[in-house]
Design brief:
Helices cover 33% and strands 5% of the residues. It is mainly alpha-helical. The structure holds iron/sulfur cluster.
């Protein structure tokens, strides 16, 4: 798939298969007690997918891949004025 800037897209839907695989590997290494539960993880990503701050898998508020940031239980949405999760 061709790489393109994609508003409100996660990694795969913006054509970044290699980055998706890398992030997935890092997520697998998170300790179970630090990892977000699957249901909550999906809810977080759904919020990101409806947020204007998500560009090609990256949150412009923090520069993180949201799929990675959301995978840590302790993390919060970095948008302090409109925190979505
Ligand atoms: S501001 Fe929050 S909801 Fe929006 S993309 Fe960033 S982490 Fe996701």
């Amino acid at each position: 798939m061709e790489l393109r800037e994609c508003k409100r897209c996660l990694l795969l839907s913006s054509g970044q298969e290699d980055n998706y695989k890398m992030v997935k590997k890092y997520i697998e290494k998170i300790k179970p007690d630090e990892k977000t539960e699957p249901e909550l993880y999906e809810k977080r990503l759904e919020e990101c997918k409806s947020c204007d701050c998500l560009i090609s898998g990256v949150c412009i508020k923090c520069g993180c891949y949201v799929e990675f940031r959301a995978a840590f239980k302790k993390n919060k949405c970095p948008n302090v004025k409109n925190r979505r999760w």
